[in-house]
Amino acid sequence: MRISKKLKLVYGVSLVIFASCTPQKSPFDVSPADSLDPKRMEAPYPSITIPDGTDMESPRWKGIDLSPVPPVVPVSANEQLKSFILQPGYKLTPILSEPQIKEPAAIQFDGNGRMYVLELRTYMQDIDANGELMPTSRISRWEDTDNDGVYDKSVIFLDSLVFPRYVVPFGKNTILSMESNEDNVYKYTDTDGDGKADKKELFASGLGRSGNVEHQTSFLTWTMDNWMYSTYNSHRIRWTPDGVIQEPTGNPWGQWGVTQDNYGQVWFQDGAGGIPQGYQFPLVYGNFSVKGQLKEGFREPFSLVKLADFEPGMRETKPDNSLNNVTGSAGNDVFRGDRLPKELQNQYFYGEPVGRIVRQVQVEKTEGLSYLQNPYLEQKSEFIQSTDPLFRPVDMATAPDGTMYIVDMYRGIIQQGNWTQEGSYLRTKILQYQMDDIAGNGRIWRLTYEGMERNTEKPRMYEETSAELVRHLSNPNGWWRDQAQQLIILNQDKSVVKELENLINTSDNELARIHALWTLEGLSSLKVDQVRKLMKDGSPQIRIQALRASESLYKYGEKSLEENYRELIKDSSTEVALQALLSAYILNIDQVENLIKATLKGNQAQGIQVVGTQLLERMSKEKEMASTKFAPQELALFTKGKSIYDSYCSTCHGPNGLGTPIGGGELLAPAFSGSPRVMGHPEYAVKTLLHGLTGAIEGKEYEGIMIAMDSNDDEYIASVVSYIRNDFGNSGSFVSPKFVAQLRKETASKEGTYDFDELIGEIPKAISLQDNWKITASSTALQGVGSTKDPSYAFSFKGWKTESPQESGMWFQIELPKEKNLAEIQFNSGEKEYPKKYKVSLSADGKSWTEVASGSGVKGINTIQWKAQENTRFLKIEASENGEEHWAMKQFMLFAR
Asked: What three-state secondary structure class fits 854?
């Protein structure tokens, strides 16, 4: 008699099966090769033709062997296990694989230990990158409900995405994410508990980037200092109860990967460069060049795959056809778990998917500077190697269970379509091994060590109180500490302040003390006396963290800390002295240039000499550039606006545009840094200065009152608004005195100050592009590999442009699903491809048109306004003169009242 029994599969699907004599296969025994065309397995194998015009003597091609060879064939996850070469004692276990996930590129765990998987389902689905920007990627969420190490429950949390850049858990049932060629980060929330996001809110703007999908922003990451960093962006953002603020930083030089170590040092992972970046000092202090920071031999990978199938070609090929120089990297993690050997803890790891290796990085600190080496260099080995050509490690993460997870895209092509075009060396090699149709797979592996069991405590942080979360700050696993700190800050629960202070003062756990310090900073509850006490702590790391955290207090007015910076620059620890020097520099304390010069004379440590010298060089260049950053008329407005702001506005809004604290974490007036109101339509700030503003702002009360400043002339108002839109990390358009005069005239009859809701009701609002808009154009060019002729790209960073040079009569049209009171458009045409002359027409039905504005295009941002027209569904922009250049538009914005 046969009985049925329920089998729980590892990827979260429950099936009823019937027992039989045939053994049941694990899902990891099912090979993706089963779906391939069987003809690819048959000899004779296809011959490869060398592209016409190829210089066979060039270093890239010289010595290449294009003989017919058997195709590369994908195998099951369990079969792939046989291909790995691990260091003694380590073991990999598959925990997810295709078809449940496809093209996994990154993972993140939320406060309840659920794993979010970023699935880039359009990445290189063929050799030409066709359909790369189709809206079919997703973010799935996986859960181990009975804590047996098997992910048995899944849901598609967010679907139909255009090549999403990252996933950031941000509180219960909430994530942050951004799509390719976009500028906005959105917060997505599941409000009804069904596991799928149903609410979308704007979180922050100004973090996007256009172009090749490999060269756009990735891995937005909340770090120990309570700021969020991403690749490519030379600024950081921070959530506060009053909104998201931002500050300028150095250039991260990263491409795919952001992580931090136990002491909050952020590491960025380069792409084509194949190496880590940004690890010397926190990025907020800028970039520093350190000679020899990559020790001899670091760039040599030890790959066991010998196909010579990498973009540099034969010039970077060893005699055995393996890679001789790191050329691609993706995903990174400083392992901060507690269930792998101690020698791995706080060590940096990243994937080199071209070499099919996972590299461990050993850091040697000398006189305050970091030097990197492969710890397995002498053995000519790596932390993890594979003989399977399809092993593509693209991300890794410290897991809640204390182990390390590795994301493997498991695919044939890893380079984007720009590097696989007709005639390229790489395309030839891909076709030789028939790897172009091996896509749609992906595995996630758990790395364990013999004798060390994974932690089976199931995280339940979303159900815990702030007081219960405090205990996790002492957890030996850095993931638990990070999540607890973030959630306490998001809760803004100051009832735990005393408990945090007690943890700092009494604990012998250095890392717990550091997290408690930064949690207080994030709650705006850090006291200057507490910081000064920690600056005298016996631990150099505590002194360093106290210096960094004190910067927030200084920015909010605690100028007396200057003396502490001067004192700690003389600290016996070179690393502490360096941090004091960097803090003094970034805060621009009085006579800081002379202080740096004196320090260089008195301290010969290599780190002091390297950093101090480069800081002085940077300050000299900044002085030279200050006068050329803006056009002359803009510089005049900026300079005058800064003088006015420093004299009057900073009292309430803070010297750094962060607001002035009045106790209990409250602000006297709103922050300007990163403010969506300040950075939105300039009419908001101008009307506020002209007539004043009272009442709650977006539901939040401030003690200060914004009085009317209309007694000042138009240039005064324009200067202040232009300044606050272009300092404190902001970058916006300037406001002209003429614009102020126009608004002054239009609001002359206004009596009394504005109420916030009244003012917002008057301001033109940007209307975001929706799926039900119909965007058409008389001419649209195909832009780049994998693109489609889609005029709606005008609303993104990717942009739209005409197929040929502009001609009178060319048009771009928007059809809205509902009538709007349209009043303004704005678009960026770059340096050359702006419309020579154009006109704007509106229509209710798309047949009868009314011209409402006309103008001449300019390089960069183009803005044109008209008196708001009601009952409008159609807008058409039409070129009214021929031109030699194409007509292009990106970051298009449509405003309505």
From this structure: strand
Same-domain pairing of 190 and 166? yes
Reading the block at residue 449, the tokens are: 């060590």
β-pairing, 693-694 vs 754-755, is: parallel
What is the total count of domains within the chain?
4
pLDDT at 151: 87
Instruction: Tell me which amino acid residue 753 is.
Output: T
Q: What pLDDT is attached to residue 14?
A: 32
Let me know whether 604 and 699 are in one domain: no
What lies within 8 Å, CB to CB, of 502 at 6+ separation is: none
* Nearby residues of 887 by Cβ (< 8 Å), 6 or more positions away: 801, 802, 806, 810, 829, 833, 834, 835, 879
Burial class, 810, CB count within 10 angstroms (exposed 0-12 / middle 13-18 / buried 19+) = buried
**Sign of the Cα pseudo-torsion (164, 169, 170, 174, in order):** positive
Residue with tokens 């090769």: 33
pLDDT per residue as tens digits for the range 654-709: 877 888 777 666 787 888 888 888 888 898 999 999 998 888 888 788 877 788 88
Q: How far apart are CA 837 and CA 879, in angstroms?
A: 6
Residues 738 and 827 in one domain: no
Q: What are phi and psi of 462, to 5 degrees?
A: -75, -15
> Per-residue pLDDT tens for 36-83?
777 677 767 888 888 888 888 888 898 898 889 999 999 999 999 999
Query: pTM for the complete prediction?
Result: 0.83
Residues 423 and 571 in one domain: no
Same domain, 97 and 55: yes
Under-70 pLDDT residues of the chain? 1-24, 39, 43, 626-628, 663-665, 783-788
CB 125 within 8 A of CB 442: no
Residue 462 domain-assigned (yes or no):
no
Torsion 337-340-342-347 (CA) sign? negative
Ordered strands of the 115-119 beta sheet: 104-109, 115-119, 137-143, 153-161
CATH number for position 662: 1.10.760.10
- 3-state SS, 606-642, equals HHHHHHHHHHHHHHHHHHHHHCCCCCHHHHHHHHHHH
Q: Are residues 271 and 357 in the same domain?
A: yes
Classified as helix, coil or strand, 66 is coil
Q: Report how far Cα 828 is from the mean position of its chain's Cα atoms.
A: 23
Asked whether the beta carbons of 662 and 694 are under 8 A apart, the reply is: no
**Phi then psi dihedrals of residue 177, to 5 deg:** -160, 165
Looking at the domain assignment, is residue 243 inside a domain?
yes
Residue 892: half-sphere exposure toward Cβ, Cα within 13 Å: 21
For residue 514, tell me if it sits in a domain: no
Range of the domain at 843: 774-896
Report long-range pairs for 611-614 (Cβ below 8 Å, ≥24 apart): 611/281, 611/288, 611/368, 611/578, 611/581, 611/582, 612/581, 614/288, 614/289
322 is a domain residue: yes
**Nearest CA to 561 among 573, 552, 574?**
552
**CATH code, domain with 877:** 2.60.120.260
Dist. CA 247–CA 234, nearest whole Å: 9
Q: Got the DSSP string for 537-606? A: -S-HHHHHHHHHHHHHHHHTT-GGGHHHHHHHTT-SSHHHHHHHHHHHHHTT-TTHHHHHHHHHHH---H
Looking at 575, 606, 626, which one is the last position of a domain?
Answer: 626
For the stretch 740-768, what's the b/e string if a residue is b when 16 or more beta carbons lie within 10 angstroms of its beta carbon?
A: beebbeebeebeebbebeebeeebbbeee
Classify residue 83 as exposed, middle or buried by CB count within 10 Å of its CB (0-12, 13-18, 19+): middle
Q: Are residues 651 and 787 in the same domain?
A: no
In order of 50, 396, 432, 470, the CA distances from 416 in angstroms are 21, 21, 18, 44
Looking at 733, 758, 783, the residue that finishes a domain is 758
Indicate whether 702 and 752 sit together in one domain: yes
230 vs 176: CA distance, rounded Å: 13
Task: Single out the residue of 509, 430, 540 nearest to residue 127, CA to CA.
Answer: 430
- Model pLDDT, residue 665: 65
